[in-house]
What we know:
The chain is an alpha+beta fold and 131 residues long. It has helices at residues 3-23, 43-55, 87-104, and strands at residues 32-40, 59-60, 64-67, 73-83, 107-114, 129-130. Strands 1, 2, 3, 4, 5 and 6 form a six-stranded antiparallel beta sheet that branches. A hairpin with a 5-residue loop joins strand 3 (64-67) and strand 4. Helix 1 runs antiparallel to helix 3 and helix 2 runs antiparallel to helix 3. Globally modulates RNA abundance by binding to RNase E (Rne) and regulating its endonucleolytic activity. Can modulate Rne action in a substrate-dependent manner by altering the composition of the degradosome. Keywords: Cytoplasm. Pfam families: RraB. InterPro entries: RraB, RraB-like_sf, RraB_dom. Belongs to the RraB family.
Amino acid sequence: MSIERMLQEQLEENREIVQALMDDGSDPDAEYVIEHHFSSTNFDRLEKAAVDAFKLGFEVNDAEEIELEDGSTLYCFDAIANHRLEVELLDQACEQLMNLAVKQKVEYDGWGTYFVGDEMPEDDEDEETLH
């Protein structure tokens, strides 16, 4: 799939996620922790992507190592930003980070955040994040 197509799908998903959070009563004026997810089977590539994300102004957490069912190893990290849940900011970040992923030959796995409000909606009590 082309980067343009992947970006278009991500931008549509951004709108859906933000709308779902707002529909559930999440605070539109709050500052959110936005975690952009990256993964790769190649640690060196992932490390270069983390450095690039840091240079773009994102906080970067330590890479985690996950053993998959087939015995292979997957490395992952999050590039973290703190800002209001505004589609324009998310779109800009997603475009930057998807291009970074293509450049470093790693996977950009979307983003997630946490519900911010007085209380979780009753039917979503078991789900704290949306991605």
